[in-house]
Design a protein that fits this description.
This protein is 15% helix and 45% strand. It is an alpha+beta fold. It has an 8-stranded antiparallel β-barrel with strand order 3-4-5-6-8-9-10-11.
Amino acid sequence: MKFENYFLIILTLFVTTTQAQKIEKITSKDGIHYITTTIDYPITGTYLSEGETEPFVQLNPDGTGIFQLDDLSKTTMVWGMECFEDGTPKYQKGFNYAVYSLWYKNKEVNSEINAKEEWTYAHFSILFQKKKMFILGERSKDYIE
C-alpha cells in the first residue's frame, strides 16, 4: 500500500512538471509583467505584411525570434505573451476576436544602446472567423485550429 501511494505522488509530480508552462517575470517602464510563449493558439511562426516577403516577424517556440523593422534591419529578440503570475494568458475577447499583449526585447546586449533597451509592447490580435493572427495590425499569419 505504501509503495502505491509513493508511486502516485511521484507520478503526479512528474506530470505536473512536464505540463508546466515557462513563465518569466519582466520589468518594463510601466511596471512588472509576466510572460509566456504558450497560449491556446499556434502563435509561433512567421508574420508578413499582405503580399510581401519583408519586413517580417519570426516567433520561435523557445521564446526567441527576429523582428524586422520597416527599414529591413533585423533584430534578434526574446518575446512572450503577457500572462498572469500563474501562466494564464491575459487578453480581451470580443465577438470573434481576441487581443493579447506581445512583449519583446533585443536579445543581443553588445553595446551601451542595446544594454539600455527595455521590453517593448506590441499589439497582437487573433481574428477567429478569418483564422488570422496579427502583430501590430499589419503583419499576419494564417492558423489552423
